[in-house]
Amino acid sequence: MVAGIAAGIAGCDRQSGGDKQPPEASASAAPNAEGAAIDRSHKGAQLPTLRFKDAAGKEINTAGLKGKPLLINLWATWCGPCIAELPALNKLAAGGKIRVLTVSQDSESAKGKVAAFLKARGGDALEPWLDPEGTAATQWQVGTLPASIYYDAQGREVWRINGGKDWAGTEAAALLAEQ
Predict the structure, then answer these.
(1) Which of 95-104, 107-116, 148-157 has the weakest average pLDDT?
(2) The domain that contains 47 carries what CATH number?
(3) How many CB atoms lie within 10 A of CB 153?
(4) Whole-prediction pTM value?
(5) For residue range 16-44, what is the model confidence (pLDDT) as tens digits?
(6) Which of 16, 21, 23, 98 could pair covalently with 69 via S-S, beta carbons 3.0-4.6 A apart?
(7) Which residues contact 141 (CB under 8 A, 6 or more apart)?
(8) Which domain range does residue 33 map to?
């Protein structure tokens, strides 16, 4: 199963820019200005209960994350478009209006490196959660990294995006204002 997930999200690579990675589209997904597909086909679905750990073993449960809008970002240290998003995601997290949950899809062998990787790339407001088994990618049927899923304050899905996003742009601000 993990091999299938790894093969499915292997479309992301360091050499390709965010615009080189084709979005995985569904019938209700429309490409945004950057070419990433905005999928609203799951709108209203409840935030699933998932557990992630950091390198020290501290655990977070998504069931306890209601109360403010939540942007879950699945990424990996080996993914060029994922790395390009980190500074803007950090700025969103530092702003405090929404919670940004970055969940690394790196393998178990990289778990001790993710926090330092985030910090070195200006991600000091981002929490280094780990999902080496690919539970989140399976749950949200992610085929491309980065992938972002946005939930309202009540824990209902608003939209999801497969592919890179300019989180500092006006289009992102409009998307994050949606409920």
Answers:
(1) 107-116
(2) 3.40.30.10
(3) 14
(4) 0.82
(5) 443 333 333 343 455 445 557 899 999 99
(6) 98
(7) none
(8) 2-13+20-177
